[in-house]
Amino acid sequence: MLVDLAPYYGHPRDAVAKLAELYFKHDPISVVIDPRSQAGTLLRPLAEAGVLVREPSTAEVVAAHGTFLDLVNDGRLAHLDQPPLTAAVRAGQQRPLAGAAAWDRRLAVDQSPLVAATLAVWAFTSWEQLSSPSAWVV
Questions:
Q1: Number of structural domains the chain divides into
Q2: Residue 70: which CATH number?
Q3: With a threshold of 0.85, does the pTM exceed it?
Q4: Which range (5-19, 60-74, 76-90, 93-107) has the least confidence?
């Protein structure tokens, strides 16, 4: 599996237009934003722009982290050596979360490329589960 960042380094207020452009141009499997992250402020504007966003639960963020590390350790994940992602990977540290671990986002080096890659890999590897109809017991 190969991770490729869609480069965007503009102001966050312009991110919605760029994400909407990419969303409607490429019809991705999923757009994922952790609602407990700083990117959570983009959820409402993206919804208003017509972009469907998957908001992972804490358990899913933990699962995404584990899946990402498993793929790396098995030699099944690579990236294009893009400087922001490479820097985030080199500085990456784990933090405890829900009895397991996730990436520590509060570091001197911007961790958003690593978190984005982790959530993208999770969405890609679990797209069949995410797209399957579910039965709800009320």
A1: 1
A2: 3.30.420.240
A3: yes
A4: 5-19
